[in-house]
# Entry
Amino acid sequence: MAPPLVALEDMSLRQGGSLLFDGLSLQVGPADRLALIGRNGAGKTTLFRLLDGSLEPDRGRRIVRPSARVVTLAQDLAMDGFRTLADFATSGAGAPPAHAVAAVADQLGLDLGRPAATASGGERRRAAIARALASAPDLLLLDEPTNHLDISGIAWLEAWLARYAGAFVVISHDRAFLSRLTRACLWLDRGRLRRREVGFGGFEAWSEEVLAEEARAAERLDQKLAQELEWLHRGVTARRRRNQGRLAKLEALRAERRAMLGTPGVAKLGLKADEAKARMVIEAEGVSKTLGGRTVIRDLSIRILRGDRIGIVGANGTGKTTLLRLLTGDLAPDSGTIRRAAGLTGIAIDQQRALLDPAKRVRDVLADGSDWVMVRGVRTHARGYLKQFLFPPDALDAKIGSFSGGERARLLLAREFAREASLLVLDEPTNDLDLETLDLLQEVIADFEGTVLLVSHDRDFLDRTVTMTCFLDGSGKVELVAGGHAELERLQQGRAQEPPPRRSAPPASGPSLAAPSAARAGAQEQGRKLSFRDRHDLERLPAEIARLEALRDRLEAELADPGLYGRAPDRFAVLGEELAAVRTALARAEDRWLEVAAKAEALGG
# Structure
């Protein structure tokens, strides 16, 4: 057996006057692919700091294999003081060379010249990923790597890690990400670290076995301890079992939705007129919206009923937030109509958790300083209500500043779900939540009597929660699919296996090539009115775009080899420059084709 890359031996650590770890030991081998699982506040990020050596324990030692490179992708990205994302990714001790960062950033579709101060969360996350992966690590420590990434970015990272020859330990709330990549689990629970050589897919069965045995032992020893375990764990286990029943109910709702959907992409309501009127919450007909000269939403028609759980997915920048604002009335359409039910009241839960004042107590935020809170019109004791959101009884008087990011998110959910509303709007609600809190959120959404609009990149959460998915491809089209992300993925894979239709226009490999069919018809019928150069480009560019796409794919595949930089850094640099040039040429070709296609359409009109 190969010696470990990093080993922690008999480590103990106190934080805030309490003992976080005592006698903790861990070995990470050169081929390990580990999921680190634990509640918010259990010490997962602290354990990473012990592994990478940035934190010294009170007792114990860290042993690192000579020359082993340990790289951490942190959850919280500090970019203050950096002018651009490139400055962040290539500065500081142990920073990778600029050309290596540029090659990874190019594959991620990231502009490293973006000012760090105005970069979005997704752009910052991609910059941190580029820095970490370009560092040629032997061991990667990934703390919530999928936060702020869209689904295409998550898929790219999954593919890179699947090919990666080194070891990694990952903290993530993304069940699909963990299930696809990990081979063993580390479970951090009440200061104790357990390991099981089973991927994340087997974690729940293993953890329930452990908890059941603990509960039996506790009952034999101490009734009070047994009650504590009941609060800590049995409720979680029962919640998972209840959620299995909710999944069955969810599938019945999806079947109802499938009966209402006709041709994919068009919602047709299969209900009697009176029933449709009674259940209607939002109805959009022929809605289009253009922002900054780009059509973000084109000719959308959808009917959303009471009880629907609508998932909104798509790459960053495709218009998910715009669609959400159109449906809720925060934004007016350029054309088409949107009708909403009379008396529609909403709760919006977004990512503004920083608005929770750290100096305030939980009771100040939840119950205006009292012991009682109104929960959807019913007077409820605040301690009992907090228990439903996995807080201990003494949390009511705790300062919010002492909470982790996940605990703050859980408190925000508790506060907002106490309100009476018929519409729930969730914008990336899963960021910073642990797996048990995700189970809780799934339960609360399932029990919500109104309608839910949910923007998320968490594929497993969508599969467990939504009845219908709205997919935005970036061209303005919104495709409607009964079910979650798995159903959308199956539909897209089925299309990919179909033989391509014969056509003169270039293949639609991405949003930028989604030109209307009228452009092609107009070009054929009115081509004589175009200039010679326009006609030539309209005929020539499809083949040129296809050639550039094939070249781009080949270069990306070669650069994706995680060992290439170590074997041939000069070749790595050359390929990175070639890929950048090809991407530029491809973008210009696509823009030119769209220009002449639009001109042909105008002439045809």
In short: The longest strand covers residues 280-291.
